[in-house]
Request: fold
Amino acid sequence: MTSEVIRYRNANNGDVVERQHPDARLEMLPNWSRVEEDAKPKRETKRASSDGKEDGGG
Reply:
């Protein structure tokens, strides 16, 4: 049996979090909304390139 994961996205900063059950607090806050199943949680890390500058990813 697989448990379904619920994902919420923060409209202010783009954070995505996962919950095993509906989160009443996130459900009532206007800046949080449920996202589609294919969305992945956002990592808060930034990679630095070899020249010491942030890697913009392309």
User: Anything to note?
Assistant: Strands lie at 6-10, 16-19, 32-34. Confidence is low (pLDDT under 50) at residues 44-49. The chain has one helix and three strands.
